[in-house]
Amino acid sequence: MAIVLTKKKLEPAAYEEPDVSAFAALIDKVGQLQAEAEKTLARIKLEQDRLKPYKQALAELQAKIDALDLGPDAIGEELGFDFKVEVGKKGSARRVTDLKKVRELMGDELFYACATVTLKDLDNYLTGPQREQVLVTDRTSRAVKVVKRG
User: Fold this and answer.
1) Cα separation of 60 and 85, whole Å?
2) Is residue 79 a contact partner of residue 73, using CB atoms and an 8 Å limit?
3) pLDDT band at 22 (very low <50, low <70, confident <90, very high)
4) In sequence order, what are the residues at sequence separation of 6 or more whose Cβ sits closer than 8 angstroms to the Cβ of residue 103?
């Protein structure tokens, strides 16, 4: 008895798109938004650069106004050729004059809860070995740069 083998046609497996991870989708989202964001940041920088002459002139005007011989509550007006400036009362600024007295009044626990010492202060007033006793350096986020593939 003879055995006859017949060829069986195999259907090719349907191609399935690989699952794109949420991480890959986020990378693509940032990449797609990046070009427009870079244009916007460039426009903002340009506008900030355009503001520099105004800010410098305003600071110069403020210095001249501060030098005027006016009482703190006096108001006034100064004329330019095309514009005028209206000068208001001086503002108020408060500052602590006796930090030891503040600590005494608040008590140590509340005082130390509220007290602020900046890293710049520590860098300026403590030596390296002293800073090592009170500071810890942690690692921060990684730098990220999204670039077009291919």
Assistant:
1) 13
2) no
3) confident
4) 111
